[in-house]
User: Fold this.
Amino acid sequence: MLAIRLDKELEQELDLLVKAKGSNRSSVVREAIVRYMEDNEDLKLVHQALSESGQRKSLKEIRTDLGLDS
Assistant:
């Protein structure tokens, strides 16, 4: 069980999101926490890969390598 306090504005935004999704507060907050944790794990893996490879490329280089820029 977890209890959190939200300021009034954030609580109102959460309630609007809950209503729009047809869900409930617990489900929306749980989903947000899971996504946050997954993002942090991905970031950790990126940092680990960068430190192991020692190679870095700019965003422009990556876009070019992927054929995203003409």
